[in-house]
Amino acid sequence: MDLDDLSKRIAAGERRALARGITLVESSRSDHRSQAAKVLAALPKERQALRIGLSGTPGVGKSTFIESFGLMLTAQGLRVAVLAVDPSSARSGGSILGDKTRMDRLARDPNAYIRPSPSQTHLGGVARRTREAVALCEGAGFDVVLIETVGVGQSETVVAQMADLFMLLLAPAGGDELQGVKRGIMEMADIILVNKADGDLKPVARRTCADYAGALRLMRKRPQDPETFPKAMMVSALEEQGLQDAWAQMQELDQWRREHGFFEGTRSAQSRYWFEQDVRVALLAQLDQRDVKVEMRRLGKKVASGAVDPADAAAQMLSVLREG
Description:
alpha/beta; Single alpha-helices involved in coiled-coils or other helix-helix interfaces; Rossmann fold; 3 domains; seven-stranded parallel sheet; 13 helices; globular
């Protein structure tokens, strides 16, 4: 593989080259990992897309929202990349990867690129290499990168470590829905979007939006936000209502953070976070080595039979790893 040629074609915006590059960064093979690093290093560093993370409860309409929102952006002349992370089966490792089917109109737009990726049972539903796929999309000249995650919860907040803005998409419901959304992800959200604000659900959506707006006011203020953020807004992806207002708010928040020095600081902190995560993953990968697996099974049998305490077995296993 000619890595220099691949990097140049990605930088020129060739979709097939971008797809090949993302396949490369998603590979777990050691030779592919080194090749991916070279491709990433050769891409233009001055290109910066607006990275928008999007999470929400299942069935809230994330795909419909992304399609309507993406089409609105492409109509304005912007190039939009969508990295949609689908849940992988813990049993088979397989994934449906149906986002291109659910976003058929956006998939046909020449200014849009949709890449479904399996979560590979990674914590938070964000594929381990999604961050590098984002960098490839930036290098390919996309203006906006949307990162969709598989669900909502404490673990989903990992998407905030690779996004400039974090949107939480929710559906209209009774007041009890506040109890179904964990505080951790609400503290990460920059804007809460109450979707399906149309038809008979519009009054319910208005009440839900007011509930979340009130909850956000009770939370501790973050230094990277102006006075009016975070906020809750109503949108209808089906009727394409409120999308322009939501985009205006995203641009306003992004501009404020850039002007006050938070944009670069956040990206630097994210780079450090992913460095530490890669070190942890590399250490865990040592457990997959053949001799280590043998020792793990041996100690596991002893723990299961009660011959060794779990803590003592863990200490012995760590000792084996240090010696190796």
